[in-house]
Amino acid sequence: MENTCENFQEQILELITGTLPAEKAADLERHISKCPSCRAYLEALQTDDKLLGEFAEAMQPRVARLENNVIDAINRGIPKRKAKSISIWRKIIKSRITKFAAAAVIIIAVLIGMYQFGGSIDGASVAFAEIKKAVNEMPLLHKVLQTERDGKKFYTENWYCFESKTVLSKYAVDGKCFKISSLDYYTMENIVYDPDSDVVRVSYRVDVDSGGLPSSPWLIVGDYIEQYVWEDAEVSHEKGLYEGNDVDIYYFSIARNFRDEREEAEFIVNRNSHLPILYKRRFWTPEGRLRIGQVISFDFREKGPKDIYDLGVPGTTKVVYDLESKKRFEKKRQLLQEKLVYEERFKEVYQLKEGEVLRHIPPSLAEPRIKIDQISRSLRQLKREGSQIMPRTATGEKERKNQESYYTMFSWDGKIIRDNRPIFTGGVSLKTAFERIIGLSKFQYDIPNTLVSIEIPGDWVVRKGSSKQQQLRALERIVQSYTKRPIRFERRQIEREVIVARGKFQFKPLSGTFDDSWIHVFSDKLDPDERGGGTLHSSLDRFLNQRLAVTQLNQQVVNLTESSDNVVHNYGTHMSAYLGKIPDGSERDAKLDLLLGNLARQTSITFTKERRKVDVWYVIDRHKEK
User: Fold this and answer.
1) Alpha-carbon torsion 584, 590, 592, 593, what sign?
2) Residue 353 carries which DSSP code?
């Protein structure tokens, strides 16, 4: 049997790429329908194929620029022979056989570009790589930032020492110094001089992490370059002179659509040392008015000031020690040590085993997560106190217990993902499990009243990328084990009128809205601003099956779109989108047509109303049936 499966699995890749002969494909499909191992192998390859293909398509603009850069280089190197663009990319992306290899090569190229060039893979990458190398060899960076805004001039001077992990700073407004400070990122000792009171205050920071100082000068300097490269800004270059030095001058220009402004910048680099000298940035309004102007000078030295007294603090100034901050700092260090212990236990309990799709963590085993959350709340409270933000009032015993009795869900993709976790107060009912863990809408399941009250307390871990059917079968086993009852999930086909979504998502901004980066859900009226509805950073599948189907339409949506699980976008819901409470009739039909048409214009997805058979998962208690 092993040899048979191995032979079939060799044919699966040919099946995906479309090169397997029809007679072999039929035999393979019959085998897959009976063999769980080969079926799982097929699903894994299909997922990889889809992800790599989408990644390759997303990278097309950058690949096109790389092609042009290579051709330009060839033209410069061989002036008598014009290189002709044959658009290798377009030939590759059309071939499903080469898509795996093409996407893999692109991934490798991107990773190499990020490693060597700090994130840049465009034409100026080689030059920026030289700058990065030169900058990172310097032990100390002196940076002076001067900003003009609303008629005021702001001055900030920083001395970064990367060996001792300290930063010295001086701040002024309109030429008047208002603070001189130093921060030691090893001890978190913070020394601040206030000229008005003529007092030096020594405290310990708990509102920043120890390791917060960038580990290299490029992580400071590179931020001013990389943002333009990644945002596809217009870049040009020329040679020149600056203060008697031969320099390279890089010009960046980019439109800021959210304000209809134009951002322009210059980056001046010494051609001999490859060290940056000056960075200028300006924001222009559509009317041509300068809104913000910034000038940053860079200076790299072997040695700098030792302490704040070298920056102008009088030696006779009174020194005050903040003993409470010292206590907070020691408390933070203790909490962080405890957190590390619980995080190790958390990984042991919550990580999924090979082949495991869904895990329920009973309250008796959820202690590591609960302790981590308690410690995190304590750390946030210390941070508020240390940053002089008004601390929250102490919670009562009842509220504290409520905070500790909630449960939550995690994702797993080789590691535990804690972002955007749904919160469950008390236990998880079957309804909650179907909707918030599995991701079904209310139209896709049916639970009898006798089973609605079942609740399963505890945390949950779901394998990212697993199918809903796999998750439901795992949930079925968990429910059976917890209730000790022969409860089954049975899939049946029911005929009903639904809305079918087809096509490939492609966002097209809608002008005249309060935010043209959103998908706007509305029928006949747009709200003047976002307060009329709501927003959600959601996958297209969840948006269609849950938010749109349940909240706005009260009608099932069948999602047949391409790549729906990987599309994530912000959307705004307008008041005219809530059709669920409008009774069936001509008014609802007219508004529904408008809503779907508006969505189609912004997403390139087609919506049709059809009567068709759909899958519904019925929860059945075999014991009751008997």
Assistant:
1) positive
2) P
Bridge-based pairing state of the strands 557-562 and 487-504: parallel
Under 8 Å between Cβ of 200 and 191 = yes
Query: In angstroms, rounded to a whole number, what is the distance separating the alpha carbons of residues 236 and 234?
Result: 7
Count of residues in the chain: 626
C-alpha to C-alpha distances, 134 to 13, 128, 129, 131, 225, nearest whole angstrom: 47, 10, 9, 5, 15
The single-letter DSSP state of residue 357 is: -
**pLDDT-based confidence at residue 544 (cuts at 50, 70, 90):** confident
**Beta strand segments in 50-173, E:** 140-149, 152-161, 166-173
Q: What tokens does 546 get? A: 């849950």
Q: Are strands 406-412 and 245-256 parallel, antiparallel or unpaired?
A: unpaired
Would you state the torsion angle of the CA atoms of residues 241, 243, 245, 248, taken in this order, to the nearest 10 degrees?
Answer: -50
Q: Which residue is it, tokens 């079957």?
A: 430
pLDDT digits (tens, 9 = 90+) for 559-604: 999 865 567 778 888 889 888 878 888 999 999 999 999 999 999 9
Copy the structure tokens of residue 398. Answer: 């009842």
Residue 236 is which amino acid?
Answer: S
CA distance 90 to 499: 35
Question: Among the residues of 118-260, which ranges form H helices?
Answer: 125-136, 218-221, 223-230
Q: Are 346 and 368 contacting, i.e. CB atoms less than 8 angstroms apart?
A: yes
Crossing angle of helices 223-230 and 125-136, in 10° steps, is 160
Question: Which conformational region is residue 501 in: left (phi greater than 0), alpha (psi within -120 to 50 degrees), or beta?
Answer: beta
The burial class, CB within 10 Å (0-12 / 13-18 / 19+), for 317 is middle
DSSP state of 213: S
Tokens 């001509």 belong to 586
Q: What pLDDT, on a 0 to 100 scale, did the predictor assign at position 169?
A: 96
Is residue 595 within 8 A of residue 579, CB to CB? The reply is: yes
The rounded distance, in Å, linking the Cα atoms of 177 and 175 is 7
Structure tokens at 552: 């706005």
Euclidean distance between CA atoms 619 and 102, whole angstroms? 45
Give the amino acid at 565.
Answer: D
Structure letter (DSSP) for residue 269: E
Question: Residue 504: pLDDT above 80?
Answer: yes
What is the average pLDDT value for the chain, to the nearest integer? 80
Closest CA relative to residue 140, chosen from 305, 311, 296, 300: 300
Computed from CA positions of residues 23, 25, 26, 31, in that sequence, does the dihedral angle turn out positive or negative? positive
Reported as a pLDDT band with limits 50, 70 and 90, residue 395 is very low
Q: What is the largest CA-CA distance in the chain?
A: 95
Q: State the Cα–Cα distance between residues 620 and 446, nearest whole angstrom.
A: 9
Backbone phi and psi for residue 180, each to the nearest 5 degrees, phi listed first: -130, 135
pLDDT at res. 320: 96
Beta strands 140-149 and 152-161, pairing class: antiparallel
Residue 53 has pLDDT above 70, yes or no: no
Residues 247 and 271: beta-carbon distance below 8 Å: yes
* 144 vs 149: CA distance, rounded Å: 16
Residues 423 and 470: beta-carbon distance below 8 Å: no
pLDDT score recorded for residue 533:
61
**Do residues 304 and 159 lie in contact, with contact meaning Cβ atoms separated by under 8 Å?**
yes
**CA 533 – CA 552 distance, rounded (Å):** 11
What CA–CA distance (Å, rounded) separates 391 from 383? Answer: 9
d(CA 172, CA 191): 17
Within 10 A of 543 (CB to CB), how many other CB atoms are there?
A: 23
Query: Could you give the CA distance from residue 18 to residue 53 in angstroms, rounded to a whole number?
Result: 15
